[in-house]
Design brief:
By secondary structure, the chain is an all-alpha fold. It is built from two helices and no strands. It is elongated, with a radius of gyration of 16 Å.
Length: 67
């Protein structure tokens, strides 16, 4: 079950990267100014990085405690 949580968390984090890229380059959001799109995309990229770092830190800590 723990492996599933790790993989699911990484999948969600990658989803933030996909969403940020989609927001940045998609013509669907042309009604928003480019500045707003860039700001939200940067926020989503940083949040995705934060989630990946958090998952990796938890995994290292748990592996260290197990040994």
């Amino acid at each position: 079950m723990e492996k599933f949580n790790i993989y699911f968390s990484i999948l969600i984090s990658l989803g933030f990267f996909v969403l940020a890229t989609f927001l940045l380059v998609s013509p669907s959001f042309s009604y928003l100014s480019i500045e707003i799109r860039v700001v939200f995309s940067v926020f989503l990229y940083l949040y995705g990085l934060f989630r990946i770092a958090r998952v990796l830190t938890k995994r290292k800590r748990r592996d260290h405690e197990d040994s």
